[in-house]
Design a protein that fits this description.
55% helix; mainly alpha; two-stranded antiparallel sheet; 390 residues; single chain; Citrate Synthase, domain 1; Cytochrome p450-Terp, domain 2; 2 domains; binds acetyl coenzyme *A; three-stranded antiparallel β-sheet; 16 helices
């Protein structure tokens, strides 16, 4: 870790602190969420994530993130209605999805579709708060429809139109599977969406803020954020966790696999975090759902393997502050719910779109262009060598 924060000299010979990957650098003040990485505490606008997971819904949490306060009864009803009325996406956008190669990466399809959606917003360049809140609601409502359509396109099935009488989470599952989910499945997904909705200056949120800080537009910021979330060091890890479990194959092979990864200095996916040096509070909640779903489906293998990986990782690298992150148990939760592995990261986006849009709006309220510096440690005054002399 020591070499990741070190003193270096800039071009004028002045000593400066260099934090690789901007570790610990404060880039802005933000009122949206707060993380205590030592104690394992996550708050959305001051409320502990456990409270929201136990009592709120994704719709209410989204209102809270966008509007800085919890809604009253009628405000929540109106907001839910607003989200429902924006579930349809333009037919041309659905045609765009139909035109994509069926075997393309689901996150690439999502990124390109979000970009395409912006072309159907005649005011996309207007960055007032009112317009951006309208746009945020439209994006949050459209993401499940787009992701479900992408999934159906990839599996060669016809799209399923959104249902007005289902919640955000239940409607998403309905559009993916073509049938209404059980109450429990809808509840589990609703909580998973709450848990993934925001998380400080994570890579994708920071990406969105950097893009909007040039006074670009929300669609550009969100498509860039989707691109960032896709990476296996960030949101792409949930799908990698499932690949890991499948690669290991059985409980008796877990020890050998994990020990080999650690010995060869390879990461075990779903573990470690830039901010948390203890148990991620979201992983704690998701591990309980994973256990319940394992019991309900009668297929406890994947949950037991996950517990075993956790046990070995605690024993071997717990003292270095490496614990399960949000992606570790969300993988088996989604798997037990019968969701395709390629959908895991897009589902993360279906949730994080709430946080991304809240951050874009917040960034614009007190905007300053993000423009850090890089130190050039190479040679100077290098002569230009004509092409024939090289
Ligand atoms: N498995 C094994 N060792 C690990 C892991 C892991 N998953 N994560 C960190 N470490 C070790 C590193 O090898 C390194 O050890 P060293 O100091 O002896 O060289 C030390 O912990 C620090 O690791 P970094 O990669 O420098 O830590 P950083 O803060 O940059 O990384 C990250 C955070 C990228 C999340 C990292 O832990 C990782 O790659 N995890 C696996 C991928 C993953 O699960 N990503 C999802 C994160 S949550 C999210 O984005 C939604």
């Amino acid at each position: 870790m020591a070499d990741k924060v070190r003193e270096i000299f800039d071009e004028s010979g002045q000593a400066i602190e260099f934090r690789e990957g901007l570790e610990g650098v404060v880039a802005a003040l933000s009122m949206i969420s707060s993380i205590d990485g030592e104690k394992g505490i996550l708050l959305y606008r001051g409320i502990p994530i456990e409270e929201l997971a136990a009592h709120s819904t994704f719709e209410e949490t989204t209102y809270f993130l966008l509007n800085s306060r919890l809604p009253k009864q009628q405000e929540l009803r109106d907001f839910e209605q607003q989200l429902k009325s924006h579930r349809q996406v333009p037919a041309a956008v659905l045609d765009l999805i139909r035109s994509f190669p069926a075997n393309a990466n689901a996150m690439d399809l999502l990124r390109t579709t979000v970009s395409g959606l912006g072309l159907y917003d005649p005011d996309s360049q207007t960055n007032t708060v009112e317009k951006n809140i309208e746009r945020a609601i439209n994006l949050i409502a459209s993401f499940p429809t787009i992701v479900a359509a992408i999934q159906r396109r990839r599996s060669g099935k016809e799209f399923v139109a959104p249902q007005q009488d289902l919640s955000h989470a239940a409607n998403f599952l309905y559009m993916v599977n073509g049938e209404a989910p059980s109450e429990y499945a809808a509840k589990v997904l609703d909580v998973a969406l709450i848990l993934h909705a925001d998380h400080g200056f994570n890579a994708s949120t920071f990406t969105a803020r950097v893009v909007i800080s040039s006074l670009s537009d929300m669609y550009s910021a969100i498509s860039a954020a989707v691109g960032s979330l896709k990476g296996p060091l960030h949101g792409g890890a949930n799908s990698e966790v499932m690949s890991t479990l499948q690669e290991i194959g059985s409980l008796d092979k877990v020890e050998e696999y994990v020990m080999n990864r650690l010995a060869t200095k390879q990461k075990v996916m779903g573990f470690g975090h830039r901010v948390y040096h203890t148990y991620d509070p979201r992983a704690r909640i998701l591990s309980q759902f994973s256990q319940k779903l394992a019991q309900q489906t009668g297929n406890t293998k994947w949950y037991e393997m996950s517990r075993k990986i956790e046990e070995i990782m605690r024993r071997e690298v717990g003292s270095k502050g490496i614990y399960p992150n949000v992606d570790f148990y969300s993988a088996t939760v989604y798997y037990y719910m019968g969701l395709d592995q390629d959908l895991f990261t897009p589902i993360f986006a279906v949730s994080r779109i709430s946080g991304w849009t809240a951050h874009v709006i917040e960034q614009l309220q007190n905007n300053r262009l993000f423009r850090p510096r890089a130190i050039y440690p190479g040679p100077k005054n290098v002569p230009y060598v004509p092409i024939n002399d090289r």
